[in-house]
Write a structure and sequence with these properties.
heterodimer; A: alpha+beta; 5-stranded antiparallel beta sheet; 7 helices; globular; B: alpha+beta; Glutamine Phosphoribosylpyrophosphate, subunit 1, domain 1; 8-stranded antiparallel beta sheet; 13 strands; about 25% strand; protease (chain B); Proteasome subunit beta (chain B); proteasome (chain B); PSB_actinobac (chain B)
Chain lengths: ~270, ~280
Amino acid sequence: MPFGYASPEQIMRDKADYARKGIARGRSVVVLQYVDGILFVAPNPSRALHKISEIYDRIGFAAVGRYNEFEELRLGGIRYADINGYTYDRSDVTGRGLANLYASNLGRIFTESIKSLEVEVVVAEVGDTKEGDAIYRLTFDGSVFDEHGFAAMGGQAEAVAGRLKERYRESMSLADALEVALTALTEPGGERPPVAQLEVAVLDRNREHRKFLRLTGARLERLLAQTSNPPATPPATPPATPPATPPQGSGDTPPPTGPDGDVDDGSSPL
Amino acid sequence: MASHRDLPVGLVNQLFQNTGSSSFTEFVGSYAPELLPRRGEVLATPIGDQVPHATTIVAATFAGGVVMAGDRRATSGNIISQRDVEKVFRADDYSCMGIAGTASTGIEFARLYRVELEHYEKVEGRSMSVQGKANRLATMIRGNLAMAMQGLVVVPLFAAYDPDKDEGRIFSYDVAGGPYERERFDAIGSGSIFARGSLKKLYRDGATADDMAMTLIQALYDAADDDSATGGPDVSRKIWPIVSVIDADGFRRLPEEEVSGYVQQMLDARLISPDGPIAPLR
């Protein structure tokens, strides 16, 4: 401690504020269950720098925040999974194990380092049935949330999660789930991100070997065409919600004391 | 260096000291070397004869892909140790490997190799090039040279679909590595001389995947016919060769019904003509 005294509470609070502000500057990412597995959707203008990734046969990863930090978590996760699958058996690698590893590392870094990581992570595992699916959301301080059905994180996480909660239903088709995700990611009255700026992937339990599949190009466009033509399949009874929530604050402007550096603000870091 | 157990997420900045490769084998080598296939241990006496061996893998290209097939017999000396062993392994979506030689080492290689390819793909966000895949396998074989000298020889045959060329490619290896790219077809294992002779006569340029699967089944039968360590189709137990096809749609192992159909067709013909189809003289 170079200058004077700061209470532990104050230090922790400052670190948490710092991390929260960093994460809040980025865009949101949405993860939700659909009938055949789990869908990941992230607005991401970069084609090469992913926010969504495969970790293992049944396990996917999504992250928001500082790219270099969550990339390191991603690589660590892949190593953890591959080494365990090779040591024991492929079926012995679980999403829970990975979530615990991330939680302990995030927690350790939060308490021990001067700067906590500015990341939020989702570890999702697809099961043989929808009951076997798991979505774990981890925050910068190592807290783990076992989410049911869907998770949102990043910039306007609360608003996005609110919109998700309104529209999410169990066992949606892939097209419906994508529609719900895009609606959740779009501010009421706002414009949806163009196809070229969408990163979409699924963990599809019906696939053989590795369940993770990135949806790109023609396949994604076909899927989006299915979603936008029959506009709102979700129960058209309570659509009075969008006008009820007006412009949703000026969430786009970064907070005044946001950290410097390569926080993911939606533009390509390269 | 980050120590063994606190790894996966070592957020210490070791830029340039530890740039990290995308190779799983290299990572395991520094993190937990005991997990890698044994290297360089010298045994008092060669034990090659006491360990089950796998024999005869064949592969051939067709228009837009490659087929690989293997018989099911494993032998220890003159004993048949297993009748339904699997020697052709899927490596990733677009490649596979067959193994001849010490079965245990081969299976270990196949397991490690699959992780190696997937690890690279996940870390880099792209698949390794076909030549890269062939080279990685060569490195693994080279690492096993000391064991090979003790009689624990394992030699793979590698086949992959190359999306850049839209064709199948075949690579073979010797105990010291390789890779040697093969045109059209190749065979490894104790029955390979007979299989290769058969393939030489039966191979047709531009054949379909189905025709090439049939050709490989014929070649395996010819190998089993003359090599005691290669198993022919076991009709009473319904054990058929393993046949895998790789093309632009990826890797697929032919279902048992399909293979048994081919085998039955071949056996019926062999009842009339025991040496199999006759290639035209001119």
